[in-house]
Amino acid sequence: MSCFPHSSIRPARRVLAAMMHPDVNAAAGVNARGKLKQRRSRKACQHCHTRKIRCNVLENGTPCANCVDAGTTCIIRRRKNQSFPVWSNGNAHQRQHHQQQQQHHHQQQPQQQQEGQQPQPQVQHSQRSLAPNGISSENNGFANGVESQSQSSTPPLSADGCNLWPDLGNELNAWEQNSVVDASSASCDFSHLTDLDDIFTFTGNTFPTTLPHFQSDFGWNPTYAQQNHLSPPPVLPGPGINENGNLPLRPPSSLTTSVHIPGLNPRDHEYLRGEGCFDLPPAQVLKQMMRMYFRMNHPNLPVIAEDQFWALWNGDEFRVGEFSFLLLRAMIFAATCYTELETLLSIGFVSKREARNTYYRHAKLLFDFSIERDAVCSAQACLLLSYNSPKYNILRLNTYWVTNAMRFARIARANSYHRARDPVKSKLLKRLWWGVIFRDRILSLGLRRSVQFELDPSWAEGEKHTLTAEDFQSELGNSQVHDPETQLRIFEVIAATCRLMRCISHANRIMYTHEHLDDRLEAVSKSVPGTIADIKRCLESLRQWHDQSIRLFPFPISLDDAHETICVYANLMFSYHVSAVFGLNTYLILLREVFPSARSLFSLEESKEALEAANNDVSRRTQELVQVRLVKFLPISASAILALPLVLQAINVAAARGSGMEAVEIRRLDVFTRTLKSQQQSFDGSDFCSDVLANIVAYAQDDTKLVSSMTSWRDGTGKDVNSNAVNGGNLQASAQGGQNKIKLDWGNLVYKRPRLFLRLVLYLDQAFSRGGPPQDEDFPPELQRASV
């Protein structure tokens, strides 16, 4: 049944009749028309019954299309002559005989269609509006064609790009809508529920999407698509066939593979299909993207069992019906930034960012329409979607996805993985919960936001829950992208990252429990000594982690000794460590400027040295990635981590302008600018980083004191004016032209202009946290323009 008027349905059905039975001559048109006569609907609402028009309430639920057009309330009525066979316990053989008759009819009708015979009209009341369950793509080529066409968002094109069926218009749309309903119904027979008026009255939707999932009762899994592979669907024979009965094939680059989600509201299915959510890349491209996923995404977020995934592939064919379709969509999105641009161009995209945004939208739509009913798959997909990086992130969409992932992971009891009896499931749940921790802590560190949950004490200390090679035992040797030796080294990186996340959790709790600076300083004012002692303990734990991890991954991590995946993520891991160290020492300097009592509680010289050591470490690691041309594999989190070193290096370049060190400083700055440009090719969020950095540099240039200091230093007239900070013996000096000159770089801003230094650093922090530029009143009085 369809929601289109009768006048638009009948031409399409005549076309279908001609397609099914080409041997029928035109003289039989009247008889054929009589056989295609519309039957009465088995159920109609009060409005349609009064007007004597066909009602589609069984297919689309309440309100029906006619009530929507008329603007009336759709009220379901019960037909007086409605009757169904009722089987008593004593007549079980009658029920079995009735089921055998129905099964015989289901097996007979496809055979009749293949032989060119007209199928017998159905008189069973419960089967009129449902497609026969026996139709399959293997037994009925036409049924397979209808299924393929219902999943395609555009009609076939001729060689010149024109629509092959220009005159069918609404008829074709009506036929497609009808085929979607039949295909959805064929997967599972809900006819025994069509007499339950309450389902339609109170849900306002079709019952397949509101029923709970009981696979043992219905024998189907609505979470996954019901196809066996992703090979391109056969071309649908239709009104535009040529003289040989063949339809011109589309160019290979435009071939897509479509899937169908059973149990989905037909209207929702039609909308998602029109948006391209069910169209997958060609099988060869899909496999290439999945290889890049397990090559670059998986080592950074190991939440999917790689061995189980590759077991579903047979050559270039993938049994998508046995895998979560939402999760597959999320994997495609995550792998896009690592896919070669030439590959994306071959399937119609013009850039990585366009492909990434398109695939993100497809996955988000599927999530919004709740096609996934498994908590583990939902959590995995949300973690991958947290890599979305919009240009303006005021709504914190990536944090939204992490929150959803945490919720689904807790529903699956991933935080209590050890209680699962199945060891395979237990290991996967453990990896899933660590994936939630990874994404939450890294987002908190990079975007200067509070964490979404605290670690359980048993997770925060000791090695009990740390991921080890044993948790990936099933994957060892079963990867299509890494050899076993590389896999073992990747597992070591993952284990070291687990230990680092414990330290970063402590650092994030200190720095970002209160995201606004005034709230943060108000909380610190209650116990300044206690806060500083907590910072020192955290710095010590970070130092111990560094000493332990640097022995496992000594610098430089050369491609001669390690795989490129290890080179990228080991260096990135140490960059996370640098970011935490830099943030904590900056926090100490902030407390020193706001609370005079804090000045005697720590050494400013030690903090300055720690800042310089951290900055040098991240600079040389980034330079290493640039030299070996691996910056293209850095995730979006690298933009937030490297933004501050870029600003500080820009200050050094400005200070060295016209001097002999200018070329050296420019080369160091070029390392960061090239990295950011590489990020801009794949991620929208890197544009925001670029805008923030430009604002910070402009703010520094607008500071007349800083500009005059740099000018006087370059002119040789600079003097040590830092009498209020520390004594001159602690400053870096060099003899040039018989004059002692202070080396004016960002490091000495800590001594000479600490509030300006804090203003620049905290401007970046607040911009990342808020998703927009901060205002002057967002800073404490000591750091506002009048005081800096």
UniProtKB/TrEMBL annotation:
Residues spanning the membrane: none
Tell me which residues make up the Zn(2)-C6 fungal-type domain.
Answer: 44-76
Q: Where is the composition biased (Polar residues)?
A: 128-156
Keyword list, A-Z: Metal-binding, Nucleus
Q: Which one of the record's GO molecular function terms can you name?
A: zinc ion binding
Question: What is the superkingdom listed in this entry's lineage?
Answer: Eukaryota
Task: Return the annotated region ranges for Disordered.
Answer: 85-164, 227-249
Q: Which CDD domains match?
A: fungal_TF_MHR (cd12148), GAL4 (cd00067)
Q: One short Pfam family name for this protein?
A: Zn_clus
Q: Per the UniProt entry, what are the Gene Ontology biological process annotations, in alphabetical order?
A: DNA-templated transcription
Q: Which PROSITE patterns match?
A: ZN2_CY6_FUNGAL_1, ZN2_CY6_FUNGAL_2
Q: Where is the composition biased (Low complexity)?
A: 108-127
The question of whether Nucleus is a record keyword is answered with: yes
Give start-end positions of Basic residues composition bias.
94-107
Q: What is this protein called?
A: Cutinase transcription factor 1 beta
Q: Which organism is it from?
A: Lecanosticta acicola
